[in-house]
Aldo/keto reductase (Gracilibacillus oryzae), 324 residues
Amino acid sequence: MKYRNLGNSGLKVSEIALGSWLTYGKAVEDKTAESCIHKAYELGINFFDTANAYEGGQAEEVLGQALQSYDRSSLVVATKVYFPMGAGPNDRGLSRKHIIEQCDASLKRLGMDYIDLYQCHRFDENVPVEETLLALDDLVRQGKILYAGVSEWSAAQIQRATGFAKEWRLHPLISNQPIYNMIERYIEEEVIKVSDENGIGQIVFSPLAQGVLTGKYKPNAEIPANSRAANDSTNMVINSYFDERVLTAVAALNDFAEDNGMKLSQLALAWILRQSNVSSAIIGASRPSQIEENVKAVDIELTDDMLSEIESILEPIKDFHPAR
């Protein structure tokens, strides 16, 4: 495994992180989830990402239980706050009340004394960003969280927040967690530039486009019966990629990967890690073997010629935007 600093902070995270969205506490049995977590740690992954909203807290519980056998200082555990955790008007968002209460709830579910990285799961238009940042800063000062980050914030939102944090001398935001893969590349337009200027690193999710960038889905072919796309509980995102132009490009990428002695998933991850502003790519896994395959991406170096050929393959879908 290789490690990078998370933004301009001194925190070192594995280039591949293990996430729990749509898997742990839901589609993957707890024992299998624990096997995946243990395999990830064995392979050098130190970065584990979850969120309070994943299955109403169950994903945090599964992750926390599986990590109990390891030295806490060897782990970087990230979770999030924003989405509803109850029916009440204050059971959601980024108000001081919700952030403080949900931090305590996440700590309890994880069975930990502190959270390494606490992230705002989305931007809250109904709460002053100053209130959110001051609440996060208080949690850092209390030792309940070590660092704070955001997820899927726009370049303008990041700029506004970092400007306030600097003005008020608050602990800085160090990360943004956006979707980013060969098909969805919106962060290349502004987010990466603004983040880089403000010491924020990207922790990207869906680097394999929910499995589309593994090559298992073929153009003009039926969806494999045991795949995520065939599962009604996990297919709401992946189905948005099922455009013939996308699947045709993916088939060409698969051929390119095979010609260069690698799996398409490894190529897709190596392509993401070519970005210096990317600190880590979050993979999901329902089997330990998937993790073993994916971590090999950190040793793949893509040449300029290879990157140029990849861009040629992706050219027909550069303007594709999944409908969600």
